[in-house]
Design a protein that fits this description.
With about 375 residues, the protein is of the alpha/beta class. The chain folds into two domains: about 5-80; about 115-255 and about 285-375, Rossmann fold, CATH 3.40.50. The protein contains twelve helices and eight strands. The protein has helices at about 5-35, 50-75, 85-105, 130-135, 160-170, 185-200, 215-230, 255-265, 275-280, 285, 330-335, 365-375; strands at about 115-120, 120-125, 140-145, 175-180, 210-215, 240-245, 300-310, 350-355. Strand 1 (about 115-120) and strand 2 (about 120-125) form a beta hairpin. The longest helix has about 30 residues, at about 5-35. It is globular.
């Protein structure tokens, strides 16, 4: 189901696409007119004469149409009511934000997902009285679930999924972070740190402990938030005791590195260089997964790591490079040949689940059982 605000956002995104396509075609046209050699630097600048007039007219008309749509939308569109979590809409919106979220946020597009805590798909207002209404029996122990790239909090499963089950069985109040995964990990980490500072201040009872449960990129965002909070001496950091990270690419994901190499290769020819714009249609969040490097975790925060492999048997020489289809085992378990980059995770705090894909970690019974033992 699409809201009027969604239609407005899609119209603006279409306008951005027209503008970007016209620039790509104009750059290719300029390269052909210049007679550039097949290999060399990209030709910069704008076309002149009639071609320049045509491309300029396209961009001008597109800008006028966009301004008209914005003006109309400002009069017609009303905000989407809080708590409306339509599953289908949530899924495509999460995917769109994962791919283009940094652009959506920078351009003020209404499709950009704002960072919020949610419970049962409903937005939580970080005010003491509103939190008391949302949590009948708030615990001083908080479990913060952070989803991965192109996903949202509903992907954990019905009724809160694994995080909610863990929270209920271990005495935590569970909060799900809902955020724009296309923004850079550092930006999301800083904002999460600031929101946690408010959350702890407004929580109905004194916060005794905070535990993070992160899946995929969510683990990196949680680690980034912890580093940002520590750098700012925020109070909530002292309450963090443990972080359980599922399929998190601590040392990067090969698919993004391949995408970056392909994009770099396009730059060797001025005739292919314009198409780098297409290769560059990857959000800051995605490009951050190239290496996954983050500051070392705080020494007094215990780390747990879960990796998956599509293989049903483990123990071979290639196990470290294999993985769940997206993240290699060694990257997910925090292992690295360079001791400076390896995460301080004891072997007892690592779990490898065979015969499972990246998303399978979210609902796998073996993962739940191990997390329950670790976090008890």
């Amino acid at each position: 189901m699409l809201t009027p605000a969604d239609l407005h956002g899609l119209a603006r995104l279409a306008g951005d696409g027209v503008s970007g396509t016209s620039r790509l075609v104009e750059q290719l046209h300029l390269t052909i007119l210049s007679g550039a050699a097949p290999v060399g630097k990209a030709v910069e600048g704008r076309t002149r004469g009639i071609p320049g007039l045509v491309y300029g007219s396209i961009r001008g008309i597109n800008a006028l149409v966009g301004a008209g749509v914005d003006a109309l939308a400002s009069r017609v569109i009303t905000p989407t009511p809080e708590g409306d979590a339509w599953a289908a809409r949530e899924q495509w919106l999460a995917a769109l934000n994962g791919i283009l979220g940094d652009h959506l946020a920078a351009s003020g597009n209404p499709l950009a997902i704002p960072m919020r805590f949610r419970e049962g798909g409903r937005i939580l207002t970080l005010e003491r009285d509103r939190l008391e209404e949302a949590f009948a029996r708030p615990s001083g122990r908080l479990l913060i679930a952070v989803h991965g790239l192109c996903m949202n909090d509903l992907h954990w499963g019905e009724a809160g999924g694994m995080p909610e089950r863990l929270g209920k069985s271990l005495g935590f109040s569970t909060l799900h972070l809902h955020y724009n995964t296309g923004r850079s990990i550092a930006d999301n980490g800083r904002e999460l740190a600031d929101q946690l500072e408010i959350l702890v201040e407004q929580w109905p009872v004194p916060v005794e402990e905070i535990v993070f449960l992160g899946h995929s990129m969510g683990g990196l965002v949680a680690r980034s938030a912890l580093a940002a909070g520590a750098a700012e001496s925020q109070a909530w950091v002292d309450s963090v005791s443990r972080m359980a990270l599922l399929g998190t690419p601590h040392h990067g994901a090969p698919m993004e590195r391949l995408g970056h190499r392909f994009e770099t290769m396009l730059g060797f020819s001025p005739y292919l260089a314009p198409f780098m714009r297409l290769g560059g249609i990857r959000s800051a969040g995605i490009t951050d997964l190239r290496h996954g490097a983050l500051p070392a975790p705080l020494a007094d925060v215990e780390l747990f790591a879960v990796a998956a492999t599509a293989r049903t048997r483990v123990g071979g020489l290639l196990d470290g490079a294999a993985g769940d289809g997206l993240v290699p085992i060694d990257s997910a378990l925090g292992r690295h040949n360079d001791p400076e980059r390896a995460l301080p995770i004891p072997e007892d705090n690592r779990l490898l689940v065979p015969g499972v894909g990246h998303l399978g970690l979210l609902k796998h019974p073996a993962v739940y059982r191990q997390l329950r033992r670790w976090l008890a």
